[in-house]
Amino acid sequence: MPNLFTPYTLKGVTLRNRIAMSPMTMYRSTDGKLDDFHLMYLGARAAGGFGLVFPEQIAITPDGRTTTHCAGLYNDDQIEGHKRTVDMIKSMGGVAAIQLGHTGRKGSLVTPWEGGHMLPPEHAAGWETRAPSAIAYGGDMPYVPRALTVDEIAQLMQDYADTASRAVEAGYEWIEMHFAHGYLGSEFFSPLANQRTDQYGGSLENRTRFHLEALDAVRAVVPDHIPLTMRLGIDDLHPGGVTVDESITAIGWMKEHGLDLADLSIGFNTDNMSGDVPIGVLGGMVKNATRVKEEVGIPVATSWNLGQPEIANRVIEENLLDLVFLGRPALANAHWPVYAARVLGYADPFGLVPEDWAWWLRNLRGADEAIGWPAATNGASLTEVAGVAAAAPLIEEPSPQSLSVDFEEERADELEAA
Predict the structure, then answer these.
(1) Which fold has domain 8-342?
(2) Coil, strand or helix: which one is 95?
(3) Helix, strand or coil for residue 190?
(4) Would you report the helix, strand and coil content of the chain in percent, each value rounded to 5?
(5) Residues 64, 22 contacting (CB under 8 angstroms)
(6) Which positions are catalytic?
(7) Mean pLDDT of 348-352
(8) Which of 59, 198, 356, 377 is most buried, judging by how many CB atoms fall within 10 Å of its CB?
(9) How many other CB atoms are found less than 10 A from the CB of residue 293?
(10) CB atoms < 10 A from the CB of 168, how many?
(11) 173-217 tens-digit pLDDT
(12) 126: pLDDT confidence band, cut at 50, 70 and 90?
């Protein structure tokens, strides 16, 4: 039975464990380039034991960035910074992954700590955004995007392919596309943002066309041994938006076009979400991710509140997910995998760090509890480990039932209610 620390192979790439660092925008780039900050920040997570390490979403065009401080790979001058970072991740034992994206109508923003609002197109740091339809997101993003022409969509497919080729040149071994969180791919998928009347709008088949063409374009230039994955917004949590059932059908088509793993998230095509919003729920996306895994027959990953070691381990042990993606936990603790291994009683937690560090951590005399890490459980109940076992909807106490059984019962209840 696999666990959080079992190696994982997809296509021709093997990860040392099932722990991935999610892409998170840092707003630290100049002219779209990765620099010494990214070398330090991403190298530290690889050294800390993460099996798969992503920089932030990497823009395929200048107007595909969120802000002018965001990273890209839309010209050859940007390759060097990526290559330096990739080399560092590899030297620390991780696999370097890249997430290609375009923010669509959610671009031309200021940084979050400056308010995160949208700049008008005429502003020196702003631009006219592009989207499937001329519909503004609203709220702090009031400016109406320009609807893409069919010719521009074809050029975007070439942009995806060209950026993927640069990624391969830089040494990335895992390529993902960001089609969630209200960005361009997610906008094409959602009726909330896409009201086109041509071959890219209307029916589910037409709204998925952008995804399938992008997969085809990237797969054509990426060696077959490199996994091709996609972060997908599978639920808009809005009565007029995308549903999980629709997404399951569409992911089946994507699998036929070379999708190797589905990284599942929320649509975020509106800030007027309703129903069971999983943002604040521990493991809130796991149930729907497991549905995709079972019904499509494709490997899956998700994030959203999986940072408690016992939860992260259980979703792997019970075959609910293939990989666990961690965002905020990776920011909070560059050595989260070592922390989790200590808490869970893994036999050799310091084997996750570079060998020179590992020697000192394994052999230096001193009090174990003073080493700066939580002590290993040594078989103790997780509920007895201070600061770790919090109340979680994924874990029924005192019932010993598994997560998978709980989810099946919940699904049956939902069907009966319907």
Answers:
(1) TIM Barrel (3.20.20)
(2) strand
(3) coil
(4) 40, 15, 45
(5) no
(6) 183
(7) 92
(8) 59
(9) 20
(10) 15
(11) 999 999 999 999 999 999 999 999 999 999 999 999 999 999 999
(12) very high
Lowest mean pLDDT among 143-147, 149-153, 399-403: 399-403
356 three-class SS: helix
Give the per-residue pLDDT at 375: 67
Task: Write the CA distances from 383 to 84, 282, 340, 345, 372, integer angstroms.
Answer: 43, 16, 15, 14, 21
Amino acid at 346: Y
250-272 pLDDT, tens per residue? 999 999 999 999 999 999 999 88
Distance from C-alpha of 136 to C-alpha of 145, rounded to nearest angstrom: 6
How many Å apart are CA 20 and CA 322, to the nearest integer? 11
Domain boundaries along the sequence of the chain: 8-342
User: Is residue 415 predicted with pLDDT exceeding 80?
Assistant: no
**389 pLDDT exceeds 60?**
no
Q: Is this prediction's pTM over 0.85?
A: yes
Give the CA distances from residue 242 to residues 2, 12, 191, 266, 410, in Å, rounded to whole numbers and listed in that order: 33, 33, 7, 10, 21
Distance CA 133, CA 191 (A): 10
CA–CA dist 324, 19 (Å, integer): 5
Q: So what's the pLDDT on residue 231?
A: 98
Task: List the end-to-end C-alpha distance of the chain, in Å, as a whole number.
Answer: 35
Close Cβ partners of 84 (under 8 Å, ≥ 6 residues apart): 34, 39
∠ Cα 66 67 73 (to 5°): 75
Query: Would the CA dihedral through 333, 339, 341, 344 be positive or negative?
Result: negative
Host H or E run for residue 325? strand 323-326
